[in-house]
Amino acid sequence: MITSTPDICSEIYLGLMSGTSLDGIDVVAVDFADAKPVLLGSHHDPFPAPLRDKLYAIALDQPLPISAIGQATTWLSECYSQSVNTLCQKLALQPQYIQALGCHGQTVHHHPIAPYPFSLQLNNPSLIAAKTGITTVADFRSKDMAYGGQGAPLVPAFHQALFVDPKQTVIVLNIGGIANISILDPHQPLIGYDTGPGNMLMDAWIKQCCNQPFDQDGQWAEKGRVIPELLERLCQEPFFAHPHPKSTGRELFHLQWLAQFLLGNERAEDIQATLLALTVLSITQEVQRYSPGRLLVCGGGAHNRALMQSLQSTLPLWQVLPTDALGVSGDAMEAMAFAWLARQCLHQQAGNAASVTGASQQAILGGIFRADTHLSNSHFTRQS
Ligand SMILES: Nc1ncnc2c1ncn2[C@@H]1O[C@H](COP(=O)(O)OP(=O)(O)OP(=O)(O)O)[C@@H](O)[C@H]1O
Ligand SMILES: CC(=O)N[C@H]1[C@@H]2OC[C@@H](O2)[C@@H](O)[C@@H]1O[C@H](C)C(=O)O
Q: Which InterPro entries does this one have (predicted)?
């Protein structure tokens, strides 16, 4: 809870992220008045199951009428607005005290290397501005791609602002649906890239085999044994050997991708153990390229005990810690980054790190969709 009412010149921004895991909506309120951003509060809403199914179908290219995509976008944006309004009510925060909301949208397709590259996030920021009364910043990836960048990952610059340490290498590892790393070497330009699957394949496999949304603490994976030949086949995927800058998504790492490597006689829990090993190996082979220091883990995968133990035992020279140990919530990290990116946009500062995405230059990211609360006759009341 906020203990005092902020003044109208506040530095309070909201950030909203719904990531590639498709588990739901994270919204945060952040105060940037001091050198270190302060998380004022957060809220999570799972997606309604039928919306989640629609978003999956769109992301997996299942045949759907275009109207279904339009409707899903409106539905999703109504859910986003509801989550924002719930957080504001929880914190007793009025829209006029909030500078802006940074709303990432829902990635359904990401094709940074293509004849006409694009990264598609479903989002209706005009609707969100209308329903929340908060100026909404959206479409963060397109400008970076217009300059030839990958459009992802965008969080490394925020990781750098939070965690750079003049005395040692710090790598920030986000384990969401996809895993990505930010390499914070005090003597080198910022680097960051996606390493491959985070939880995405493990989630999909346990959903198919056990109808569970995810493998709690990696317990099911721990019941299985890694199949070395399968792991080796999975590691042949060219994405893993590709040099950075690079980024990926559900369009590459899905169950059909996995199916092509299966012989059909494997035990289901052994496959899960092998998928966990793939996540660990694809991360650690990248981390080991850099001089040892601290590996700070955020995203939902930081809750997976088996995954965290395997990371630490594979990287004995590294200190593996959740970012929470340094006072920054790993569950709120990505949404906080989009609050920061919204602020960068309003302050006309760069949001991308060209050394990360490969863009030809830094750029102000995002489009601004203004709230209408200052217009006459708009006694703004939030709509649900
Ligand atoms: N206790 C737990 N044990 C194992 N896995 C967990 C646990 N808690 C969360 N997870 C994993 O974290 C996932 C959600 O992570 P997160 O919210 O970081 O994803 P995201 O924001 O969608 O991803 P991305 O970073 O790709 O955008 C869940 O789908 C699940 O796989
Ligand atoms: C296209 C897209 O949505 N990519 C996500 C995804 O989820 C994790 C990883 O892949 C990262 O590259 C990115 O998200 C974070 C927020 C980023 O841009 O840094």
A: Anhydro_N_Ac-Mur_kinase, ATPase_NBD
